[in-house]
Write a structure and sequence with these properties.
Largest interface: B-C, 62 and 67 residues
Low-confidence stretches of chain C: none
Helix content of chain A: 40-55%
Low-confidence stretches of chain A: 12-27
Largest sheet of chain A: 6 strands, mixed
Distance between the termini of chain A: 83 Å
Number of domains of chain C: 2
Order of helices and strands of chain C: HHHH
CATH class of the largest domain in chain A: Alpha Beta
Oligomer: heterotrimer
Structural class of chain A: alpha/beta
Strand content of chain C: under 5%
Chains: A alpha/beta, B mainly alpha, C mainly alpha
CATH architecture of the largest domain in chain A: 3-Layer(aba) Sandwich
Strand order of the largest sheet of chain A: 2-1-3-10-4-11
Helix content of chain C: 55-70%
Structural class of chain C: mainly alpha
Shape of chain A: globular
């Protein structure tokens, strides 16, 4: 009898956890219930951190929780498809990165149409890239590096673990005529040991990955791939200062919505994002993550995606042509 | 002694009330999660990561680390009692742990696993504290050629531990290797064996395969024998190992600890390889290898120590170089990054409290786990008294939820069901599934490093023989294969083959 | 034909798998020594599995005669069917319904399990799953079926 009573009371206790919480907002206004922000990268990475920072700010601003859901896989195609296929009601949003636009060119059949299936909301900035070399490469700047690379009988090895890293290296080779051999990796964590041991001599990688090793003298940063020098690497010149143009990595971090989401909701989200980027805590947090804050409103983000699409198309056409004997 | 000063600093930091609480919560949570079949530490840490955002970095790290090694402890419980590995690395523990439980010696097996893990954890932590920067050189010198040879060594081990048919084991390794190839090829971007399914682009998850082939298949096996099963298992055995057990277990723990400490350093080697290598080593050292698979205590003590030692030393590449050696370390790097700490060489110098505090907390955590786990053993064993018809739906549900929580994908559930069917059929056909898992885990690494080694050597295959470490590993692999073909090993297998499954 | 039909069939199945893997792998380029292609290892492994499978089948034609093992369909359908059903229901019908359905179907895998006990267990475990995973661990999942008024 006693055991039965305990079991019953425990069940009752558990049942209370099921009682749904009524929605608090007034009818007719967006958002009325929690919004899911699908992140195409696993929890714990820099993109996830940026997305969670934005989600927290939007939750406070719009009065409903913005919940991050990590849906990694297939370079982001799985998460992106989940958003493309979701109802365009503003309750399922996407947080993704610049290489998203490369996917339709990389995968066959294309998982989605980057220009038509997604409505840009806002980009909050980008993670900067830099050219890192192993200390065994006797070069203090890009000019010396080019000279050294040309003087070698065999091309130097570069590591590439994302389409963006390969894109930067290919553009660098096209701009300078320096031959380099690509060593592909599944992720930067696999590439780092070979780079630190000098088996691979260089990489065009994210500043956040290489910076701790530059500070320790295990890697040298020869150039940053941004238009301006970075506060984190004040002594490192930009590639443009070294006279090399056209080497960029589309590494923006942005929020997108399924195509067909009502314009009013898109505007509301875009202006809330813009306002969040003006607040001190958000700026401080994103700066700590080494993110370069640069707000792109919907129209500007749409233009950027279009430009990136063309960029990727050229890149993959060139790579395919190079493979032909 | 600089080390003692550092450790004092660490203990002072870790012994704060908040950090002790975090350590305890983490260890307890980890144990519970490890005990729940199917829900591994990766899914849990991914789920709980946001909760630690509000904590100070050291506290957050201590808690995550507690979950991590707590789960290593807890994982052995279901492996031994139910033959259900919570994680790929506990698959090895099932082989001898479950037969021991069937003989009514579950208590001893669990106690040996806990004590071995404790010892290995302490030694691993000591290593971490004493020579982290030094050990890092070793890990960095381990290049693609060495990795490739290490994987070949592991694969030969998979064949060599076959207890019944060498041919079947070899076939299972090859099948595992093929399953491991599923997914997008990182070098060329070609999608291999995905049959047009985008969910397969990243390959099959190790947990999905392990839960399917080992978990679901074991439940099916259990259902077929349900009427015979429950009474056959005596609910409790004695806890402390007797003298014969101790004599066998102690050297196994020592060997396992040494092996795990070294292999844990290598990024990417994971937790399965140390556990498995230790098992192969124990079987090779044993005077009567035929006992293995029938309830040999060394088969529990060695792998459990190896896997826990590796769990501790896996922190070295993460803390000293910012290189995650497994998915959990990657999540911890994420947690550190969020707190504005870039894991890398300067953590020890710039954040000594964080580094030494974490090291000290591992000691405290391991001690807590021992205190927590020994009394719990009786409880877990008594759990088996639950009628099987009530137990198995609950296990199945937790497996399914754990699978879904891995990546929020229902596709993983269907895939695991498919692997459950495969595992069931393989079990019925007398094929061992451990070599399959090993081939599956090591295969992609083998291919990746083979291609990279050849690319960096510009096509010169002699690189594998020129590098001394690589050559040594290849010779060891050869020795394993020759040992398995020897007349003694053949006789032992023939003897087992005639016994009923 | 086979003295050990079990090993014979497994051998043939493995050989067929190897042949299939080999057939698919012919579309993947094998590459060169310095740049191995995606087809190098699949080709070797496919051929190896084909060979091993045939050896196993050949071995089954000799030796002592052994009976074929019994396969039980009931547990197989209940357990694996339950997992698939859970996956199908999870996102549309919510965690509570999916869990209960899984437990109910899985309970049918054992002959003679009373449906009353199973029903109670289904409800208890469903509630427990919601409490632990949704409220405890914060897993993102609907609890109730879509379209209910309080959603």
């Amino acid at each position: 009898m006693f055991r039965r009573l305990t079991a019953l009371s425990m069940m009752l206790m558990m049942l209370t956890t099921l009682v749904p919480v009524p929605a608090g907002a007034q009818a007719g206004e967006y958002p009325q219930r929690p919004v899911t922000l699908i992140v195409t990268l696993p929890a714990g990475g820099p993109t996830d951190a940026a997305a969670r920072t934005l989600a927290t700010a939007l939750s406070q601003a719009l009065g409903q929780p913005f919940v991050v859901e990590n849906r990694p896989g297939a370079d982001g195609a799985i998460g992106a498809r989940a958003v493309v296929e979701a109802a365009p009601d503003g309750y399922t949003l996407l947080f993704s990165v610049g290489s998203l636009v490369a996917l339709p060119h990389l995968q066959s059949p294309p998982p989605f149409d980057a220009l038509r299936d997604l409505a840009p909301v806002a980009a909050i900035g980008s993670y900067p890239f830099a050219l890192f070399v192993h200390p065994s490469v006797p070069a203090a700047n890009v000019a010396e590096f080019i000279e050294y690379a040309r003087s070698r009988p065999e091309p130097l090895f570069y590591s590439a673990s994302t389409p963006g890293e390969a894109l930067a290296a290919t553009a660098f080779m096209q701009a300078t005529g320096v031959p380099l051999t690509r060593v592909p990796y599944k992720g930067s964590s696999q590439a780092l040991p070979d780079l630190l041991a000098g088996r691979v001599q260089l990489t065009f990688g994210p500043v956040a990955t290489g910076l701790p090793h530059v500070r320790e003298g295990l890697l040298n940063a020869l150039a940053v791939l941004t238009p301006k020098r970075l506060p984190a690497l004040p002594d490192t010149a930009t590639l443009e200062e070294a006279g090399i143009r056209g080497v960029t990595v589309p590494s923006w971090q942005a929020m997108l919505a399924p195509a067909g989401t009502p314009p009013a909701i898109l505007d509301q989200l875009a202006s809330a994002t813009a306002a969040a980027l003006e607040t001190a805590p958000v700026r401080e947090r994103l700066t700590k993550l080494l993110l370069q804050i640069e707000l792109l409103p919907p129209a500007a983000l749409a233009q950027r995606i279009e430009a990136d699409d063309a960029l990727w198309q050229r890149h993959f056409a060139a790579t395919a042509a190079a493979r032909q004997p | 002694m600089e080390l003692i000063g550092h450790l004092q600093l660490g203990f002072a930091a870790a012994a704060g009330a908040q950090n002790l609480l975090a350590c305890f919560t983490g260890a307890l949570l980890g144990t519970l999660i490890g005990v729940l079949p199917g829900l591994g530490p990766v899914a849990t840490i991914a789920l709980l990561l946001p909760l630690t955002y509000g904590l100070p970095p050291l506290t957050a790290l201590i808690m995550l680390a507690g979950i991590y090694y707590g789960a290593q402890y807890g994982g052995s419980t279901t492996s031994i009692l139910l033959n259900l590995p919570g994680e790929a690395s506990s698959v090895v523990t099932c082989r001898d742990g479950h037969p021991l439980a069937k003989q009514g010696r579950a208590g001893t097996a669990l106690a040996v696993a806990a004590l071995g893990s404790f010892f290995a954890g302490c030694v691993g932590t000591l290593f971490l504290a004493a020579c982290a920067p030094l050990l890092m050189r070793f890990a960095l010198d381990f290049g693609p050629a060495e990795y490739c040879s290490l994987m070949l060594f592991g694969l030969s081990g998979a064949v060599a531990i076959a207890s019944r048919s060498l041919l079947k084991s070899l076939a299972m390794v090859v099948l595992g290797l093929l399953l491991g190839l599923i997914g997008t090829d990182a070098n060329s971007g070609v999608a291999r064996y995905t049959f047009g399914l985008r969910e397969l682009d990243d390959g099959v998850g190790t947990t999905v395969l392990a839960v399917g082939v080992f978990g679901f298949a074991e439940l099916l096996h259990g259902l077929e024998h349900a009427c015979r099963r429950t009474p056959a298992m005596r609910p409790c055995g004695r806890l402390w190992p007797d003298r014969a057990d101790t004599r066998r277990a102690v050297p196994a723990v020592l060997r396992g600890t040494a092996l795990g400490t070294l292999l844990g350093l290598l990024p990417g080697a994971g937790a399965l390889l140390p556990a498995f290598a230790s098992y192969a080593l124990e079987k090779a050292c044993a005077r009567d290898p035929a006992r293995f698979g029938q309830g040999a205590i060394e088969g529990v003590a060695g792998p459990e120590s190896a896997n826990n030692a590796a769990a501790q030393t896996a922190f070295i590449p993460m803390l000293t170089l910012g290189i995650p050696s497994n998915a959990i370390m990657a999540l911890m790097i994420g947690a550190l990054t969020l707190h504005d700490i870039q894991p890398g060489p300067q953590v020890i110098v710039h954040d000594p409290v964080l580094f030494w505090g974490l090291v000290a907390s591992m000691w405290i955590g391991n001690a807590m786990l021992l205190v927590l786990n020994l009394p719990l053993i009786g409880l877990w064993v008594r759990l088996l008294a639950t009628p099987y018809r009530l137990l198995y739906p609950a296990i199945l549900l937790f497996c399914c939820l754990g699978l879904y929580a891995l990546a929020n994908r229902t596709g993983d559930l269907y895939l695991a069901a498919l692997f459950g069917l495969l595992g069931y059929l393989l079990q019925k056909s007398g094929c061992e599934t451990v070599p399959l898992l090993l081939g599956f885990v090591l295969g992609p690494l083998f291919e990746e490093h083979l291609r990279r080694a050849l690319l960096l050597a510009r096509g010169d295959a002699s690189v594998f023989l020129q590098r001394p470490l690589s050559l040594a590993l290849l010779l060891a692999a050869l020795a394993l294969i020759l040992g398995a073909l020897s007349p003694t090993a053949r006789r032992a297998r023939r003897q087992l083959a005639t016994e009923p499954v | 034909m086979f003295h050990d039909p079990r090993d014979g069939l497994v051998g043939l199945a493995l050989a067929a798998t190897g042949a299939g893997a080999l057939w698919i792998a012919r579309r993947y380029p094998a590459g060169t020594a310095a740049d191995l292609g995606p087809g190098f290892l699949p080709g070797i492994l496919g051929a190896l599995l084909l060979l091993l499978g045939l050896l196993m089948a050949a071995g089954a034609c000799r030796g002592p005669r052994t009976p074929f093992p019994v396969l039980q369909l009931r547990p197989l359908l209940a357990v694996l069917g339950g997992v698939v059903l859970f996956g199908l229901l999870l996102r549309s019908a919510g965690l509570l319904v999916a869990s209960s359905a899984l437990v109910l179907l899985a309970s049918a895998g054992l002959r003679g399990a009373g449906w009353r006990v199973a029903l109670i267990e289904a409800v208890v475990l469903g509630v427990l799953a919601v409490a632990v995973f949704v409220h405890g661990l914060g897993l993102r999942l609907p609890v109730w079926p879509a379209g209910l008024p309080w959603n």
